[in-house]
Specification:
Blueprint (H helix, E strand, L loop, with lengths): L8 E4 L2 E4 L3 H14 L3 E6 L1 H9 L1 H9 L2 E4 L2 H9 L10 H15 L2 E6 L2 H14 L4 E6 L8 H10 L4 E5 L4 H13 L3 E4 L3 H5 L8 H5 L3 H8 L1 H31 L1
Parallel strand pairs: 3-4, 3-8, 5-6, 5-7, 7-8
Antiparallel strand pairs: 1-2
Helix pairs in contact: 2-3, 2-12, 11-12
Length: about 260
């Protein structure tokens, strides 16, 4: 079965983006579940665009995904610069939580994979407390050896899940999901990075007002300056320079 082709897909920088709202994205996810073809979902931000410039395999994996959302304010900014009609962010963390709510309402089965044992267990508990009808058909922490993977994947495939959320960092989550997508047989598989830690209350998320003005990155940087220095200071500068380079090339092509 061929993957579904989703609307409003535009080339942007070294990748693509579906210029969809949150509601439109959820509609697309429901189409994926209805069709049943295993589909990898990704979100893009400045850090991932930078990683893709360094890692062509990662770029190929991301660009093969039929549904790509603009996670970062940086992507919305770059899209505006380059004339791509991305109107809003659809952050991975928000989409993840909204899809869990939809799963509870529509009866979709959910699998939670990643983070520390105490974190994924707490995420499961909190979701089941909030949504009594939610069917979490499996969960597992993100610590395993290569030898564990065949049985682990077989168990996940046998769970009957409609949605799987994978809480690894990039690019590990993109590589892992791509490697096992067909074997898992789960219709919708989404990497959610550190979202389990946020839901479990282990990591604070920026206040809503900071999210709305595109300064969530600054909040994270202030929390962990040593760890986030390269990603947010060096990485954001690289992303801005790359966007401006693409803008110059775009103008040159128009003039030619």
């Amino acid at each position: 079965m061929a993957a579904i082709e989703f609307p409003k897909r535009y080339a942007l920088l070294n990748t693509y983006v579906n210029a969809l709202t949150m509601a439109e994205t959820i509609e697309c996810v429901e189409q994926i579940i209805a069709k049943g073809t295993p589909t990898q979902h990704v979100v893009i931000n400045a850090s991932k665009v930078n990683l893709m410039n360094e890692d062509r395999v990662l770029a190929t994996i991301v660009n093969q995904c039929p549904l790509i959302n603009a996670d970062g304010a940086s992507i919305v900014w770059a899209a505006k610069k380059l004339g791509v009609p991305v109107k809003e962010r659809v952050t991975g963390c928000d989409l993840f939580q909204q899809l869990v709510a939809v799963a509870a309402d529509k009866g979709y089965k959910v699998y939670l994979f990643g983070a520390k044992e105490e974190v994924v267990t707490e995420v499961k508990r909190l979701f089941e407390e909030k949504y009594p009808n939610l069917q979490i058909v499996g969960y597992r922490n993100g610590y395993f050896s290569e030898e564990d993977e065949p049985q682990m994947v077989a168990d996940m495939a046998a769970s009957g899940a409609d949605m799987m959320f994978v809480a690894f960092s990039s690019p590990k989550k993109e590589y892992w999901v791509h490697k096992y997508l067909v074997d898992l047989g789960i219709p919708f598989v989404m990497g959610v990075g550190g979202s389990f830690d946020i839901v479990a209350g282990k990591t604070d998320r920026a206040p809503v007002w900071m999210q709305r003005i595109g300064m969530e990155w600054l909040y994270r940087f202030v929390q962990e300056p040593r760890r986030m220095w390269r990603r947010y200071v060096v990485g954001n500068a690289q992303f801005i320079a790359y966007t401006l380079k693409c803008k110059r090339e775009q103008k040159e092509n128009i003039n030619d």
